Amino acid sequence: MISVLPISKKENISTVYIVSNLNQLSLTEFNEDELNYLKETLKDDFEWKLINRFKEQAYVVKVNDKSTSQTQEKIRKAGANITQSLNQFKQKEVAVYDKTKGEVFLASTTEGMALANYQFLKYFKDAKKKTNTLASIYTQSEAISKEQLLELNAIVEATFWARDLVNEPVSFLNAEELSKQIEEMGGKANFKVEVLDQVKLETLKMGGLLAVNKGSLDPATFTKMEWKPKNATNKKPIVLVGKGVVYDTGGLSLKPTANSMDIMKCDMGGAAAVSCAIYAIAKAKLPFHVVGLVPATDNRPGGNAYAPGDVVTMFDGTTVEVLNTDAEGRMILADALAYAKKYKPELVIDAATLTGSAMRAIGSYGSVVMGTASDKTFNKLQESGEKTYERTVRFPFWDEYAEEIKSPIADIKNLGGASAGAITAGKFLEHFTDYPWIHVDIAGPAWADNDSGYLSKGGTGTGVRLFFDFVKNY
User: Fold this and answer.
1) Cα–Cα distance measured from residue 63 to residue 48, given in angstroms and rounded to the nearest whole number
2) In what order do the strands lie in the sheet with 48-52?
3) Alpha-carbon distance 271 to 279, whole Å?
4) pLDDT 10s digits, 161-184
5) Alpha-carbon torsion 249, 253, 240, 438, what sign?
6) Residues whose CB is less than 8 angstroms from the CB of residue 83 and which lie 6 or more positions away in sequence, other chains included
7) The pLDDT of residue 102 is above 80
8) Average pLDDT, stretch 334-363?
9) DSSP letter for each residue of 31-95
10) Residues 344-371: what's their mean pLDDT?
11) What's the Cα-to-Cα distance from 467 to each of 8, 312, 387, 458, rounded to whole Å?
12) Angle value at C-alpha 448, between 127 and 94, nearest 5 degrees
């Protein structure tokens, strides 16, 4: 795990200088030849150059004075590239200095550097040999407060944990193990965790979750988290709900396309986002009452698997005609959303790798959102999305879409028509809510096929930084 620390008096370590004008550099930091080289070659904004001093390296990043979501993202990516270079040079420590007047880029640079240092090496025989050397990033303490450093480290640690959870195969991370991991988070960050086991779920008649679990040899779980500090400013809690399908074959509606199951261990990306966001919130001691709910199971075609044509009675008594067992995420989320009513929440946000429709609509560049919360709340989420570059796109949520999930033999069915699949899935979920609610479909950005900037191949941890920033500014 990498740490971001206040600057200390250290010599002979690598350095990063953020400048908007090369005149901000001095002869105490670079010799005349180095300065001349930088002035001749460092022309474009957000470009960076390396001065190789053999035992340590010096990097200079040129920025402009505009602090926008786009420029902040560019500086994160520059930081990510510098981390890659530092590890190539086997550096263990680096000090980052912001020489610009506003010092607005320091946090983004260090965030990008830290996030880019992530690795998932658990299953490599030579993991020690592959491990990155960079372990500490020092920053100007006068530019970033102790609270900001605490938050940054909490966010980075939580994002790493979320990526680990998504990258873990189901051979390790079944529903019970996911609950154990969340219990470990609660112990480390001092928030409450309660796990409802299979017997309790049957007692509660959580029909959606139990139906999806019928084809599995492993029991389902339902994990409740609660962070309620004494200084909480909200009288009613914010509830975060995360889809925890630890592996999805599609069930009896087996996924038909080539390679479509290869990355289905990522189908619990919503659960990872929610649980790790609460971990970061508790670690940073944000003054908000937040509850997390994670229904978890795998979805397999074995045993007594639920089948197309079945009618399932959900936790709230709604009957659902099942037309496709691969539309399982909405089945388990529906029970959790109905359960959330017990908390009389001020707001509920769910996160789920729910539909290919969302990914086809906007690709991997953001999450599709919809729901019944106020425009102001949606705008706040969008602002957090721009700030963290985990962007959101709000879809229409017209009443007409609900017509598509009406069933001739049950209250509703779990599949709409051929078009607008992300929205009809949202309309299915809406049926189980009676509070302000936002649905976040992270199917696109939850997984990366290749390394890109500070996002490593595999689980991206999407949602952790978004939800943290949203709650912090709530």
Assistant:
1) 9
2) 3-6, 136-139, 93-98, 14-19, 57-62, 48-52
3) 12
4) 999 999 999 999 999 999 999 999
5) positive
6) 112, 113, 114, 116, 117, 132, 134, 454
7) no
8) 98
9) -HHHHHHHHHH--STT-EEEEE-SSSEEEEEE--S---HHHHHHHHHHHHHHHHHHHHTT--EEE
10) 98
11) 32, 32, 11, 20
12) 55
Q: Residue ranges of the domains in the chain?
A: 3-143, 154-472
CA dist., res. 47 & res. 357, Å (int): 36
The gap between the terminal CA atoms of the chain, to the nearest Å, is 29
Residue 368 — pLDDT band, cuts 50, 70, 90?
A: very high
Residue bearing tokens 């219990």: 183
Q: What is the largest CA-CA distance in the chain?
A: 81
CB 113 within 8 A of CB 156: no
**DSSP codes of every residue in 296-316:** EEEE-S-TT---TT-EEE-TT
Strands 290-299 and 244-248: parallel
SS3 170: coil
- Same fold across 3-143 and 154-472: no
CA 264 – CA 166 distance, rounded (Å): 9
pTM for this predicted structure = 0.97
Q: Which amino acid is at 466?
A: L
Structure tokens at 430: 């809406």
Task: Name 4's bridge partners.
Answer: 137
Please give the average per-residue pLDDT across 44-72, as a whole number: 94
Active site residues: 255, 330
Length of the chain: 474
Q: Is 285 left (phi over 0), alpha (psi -120 to 50) or beta?
A: left
Contact 365, 392 (CB under 8 A): no
Quote the tokens at residue 230.
């004494």
SS (H, E, C) 247-273: EECCCCCCCCCCCCCCCHHHHHHHHHH
Angle at 214 between CA 209 and CA 219, to 5 degrees: 70
What pLDDT was estimated at residue 9?
Answer: 66
| CA 198/CA 178 separation, integer angstroms | 14
Q: Which residue has the tokens 């983004």?
A: 108
The fold adopted by the segment(s) 3-143 is Leucine Aminopeptidase, subunit E; domain 1 (3.40.220)
Tell me the residue ranges of DSSP E strands in 381-454.
392-394, 412-413, 437-441, 447-448
- Would you say domain 154-472 falls under CATH 3.40.630.10? yes
